[in-house]
């Protein structure tokens, strides 16, 4: 009996040991499986983090181009932005449209409720007329251009523009000289005074403003400022042919802006010159689109405010490079009036300003007149 009990005890011990080894083996195998699972999970998390990191890096370096288009100031606008994919631009066009509408409500002569229309209706000499910040800034730049061009640009030329049928009233015809002289009495930018940087005062009740030859440039500058304030460094803003460009295109090159061929029979999209533009503005004025012809003679919409007659100096296009589109816009119009010799002489005296004046000879040949520092690479 004793021997039997010892045998049973040894057998039980053997079974217990066997089961203990099995349990240990199971525990080891389970631990290995857990470790393998944990390593696989870690690898997956690491891979996911690397993918996210790569996407973030790509989003910061890979650039996209966004284009906004619309209408303003009686013309069209086109805006190109180059940003990273992570840079937010939602709602930006709404802000652009609102800013342009603010400017249009201030300076459009075709809106009865605009500031400029209400000022033009003012007939009391010496009365102070309150105007907005936008209006004051444009008037200050307008006065600068008026003075440096000796009146070749004049924001009060509206009565003459209307007389020749290029404005908001009148028909396109050659008026009698006596009528031209009469209208000249209502022209003169120096008859308007800016008081305390907030008010305009008329010293001639008949004087009226038309800032169309400078307002588009101002709109370009203001949208460029809005984009910069939004953290956008690479863009091109164009309103009615007036342009401001900053930074670079999506391909890393400078913005390339075309100047139209200044011939009345040329297609609207035919390019005469291409200008590489970075962190500057370009404005062009021409007489080859808006004119009328009587007895074989063309009468341009560009009126010399000093004589009262359309320009007839052979200049068909004037382009100005400058820091601000407002200044470039107004000066380009003035150069159309001044002609090549006087215009080039002026621009050569202005720091940071360059120009191209295109003159058409009687045989139809186009002659280019460049200011001294006009980029040689753009004289193509």
Instruction: Give the helix/strand class.
Output: alpha+beta
Query: How do the strands of the widest beta sheet line up side by side?
Result: 1-2-6-7-10-13-14-15
Beta strand %:
15-25%
What is the mean predicted local confidence, pLDDT? 87
Q: What order do the helices and strands come in, and which of them pair?
A:
Layout: H1 2-61, E1 63-72, E2 75-84, H2 92-107, H3 115-120, E3 128-130, H4 133-148, H5 158-163, H6 177-184, E4 192-195, E5 199-202, H7 212-229, E6 234-239, E7 242-246, E8 255-260, E9 271-277, E10 280-286, E11 291-294, E12 297-300, E13 315-322, H8 325-338, H9 340-347, E14 354-360, E15 366-370
Antiparallel strand pairs: 1-2, 2-6, 3-5, 4-5, 6-7, 7-10, 8-9, 10-13, 11-12, 13-14, 14-15
Helix pairs in contact: 2-7, 4-8, 7-8, 8-9
Characterization of this structure:
40% of the residues lie in helices and 24% in strands. With 380 residues, it is α+β, with helices and mostly antiparallel strands. The protein has an eight-stranded antiparallel beta sheet. Strand 4 (192-195) and strand 5 (199-202) form a beta hairpin. Helix 2 (92-107) runs antiparallel to helix 7 (212-229) and helix 7 (212-229) runs antiparallel to helix 8. The model is unreliable at 1-19 and 54-59 (pLDDT under 50).
């Amino acid at each position: 009996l004793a021997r039997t009990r010892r045998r049973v005890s040894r057998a039980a011990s053997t079974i217990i040991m066997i089961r203990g080894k099995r349990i240990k083996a199971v525990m080891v195998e389970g631990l290995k499986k857990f470790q393998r699972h944990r390593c696989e999970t870690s690898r997956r998390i690491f891979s996911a983090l690397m993918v996210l990191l790569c996407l973030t890096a790509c989003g910061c370096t890979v650039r996209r181009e966004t284009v906004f288009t619309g209408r303003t100031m009686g013309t069209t606008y086109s805006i190109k932005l180059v940003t990273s994919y992570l840079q937010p631009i939602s709602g930006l066009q709404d802000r652009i449209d609102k800013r342009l509408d603010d400017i249009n409500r201030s300076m459009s002569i075709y809106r009865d409720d605009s500031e400029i229309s209400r000022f033009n209706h003012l007939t009391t000499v010496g009365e102070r007329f309150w105007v907005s910040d936008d209006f004051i800034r444009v008037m200050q730049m307008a006065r600068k251009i008026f003075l440096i061009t000796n009146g070749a640009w004049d924001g009060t030329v509206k009565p003459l523009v209307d007389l020749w049928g290029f404005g908001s009233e009148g028909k396109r015809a050659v008026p009698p000289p006596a009528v031209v002289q009469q209208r000249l009495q209502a022209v003169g930018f120096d008859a308007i005074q800016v008081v305390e940087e907030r008010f305009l005062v008329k010293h001639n009740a008949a004087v009226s403003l038309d800032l169309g030859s400078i307002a588009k440039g101002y709109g370009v500058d203001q949208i460029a400022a809005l984009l910069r304030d939004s953290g956008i460094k690479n863009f091109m803003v164009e309103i009615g042919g007036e342009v401001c460009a900053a930074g670079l295109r999506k391909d890393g090159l400078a913005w390339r802006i075309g100047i139209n061929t200044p011939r009345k029979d040329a297609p609207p999209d035919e390019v005469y010159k291409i200008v590489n533009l970075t962190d500057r503005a370009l404005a062009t004025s021409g007489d080859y689109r808006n004119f009328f012809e009587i007895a074989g003679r063309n009468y341009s919409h560009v009126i010399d405010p000093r004589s009262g007659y359309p320009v007839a100096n052979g200049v068909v296009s004037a382009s100005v490079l400058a820091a601000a589109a407002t200044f470039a816009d107004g000066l380009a119009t003035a150069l159309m009036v001044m002609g090549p010799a006087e215009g080039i002489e002026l621009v050569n005296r202005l720091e940071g300003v360059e120009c191209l004046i295109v003159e058409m000879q009687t045989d139809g040949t186009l002659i280019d007149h460049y200011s001294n520092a006009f980029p040689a690479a753009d004289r193509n």
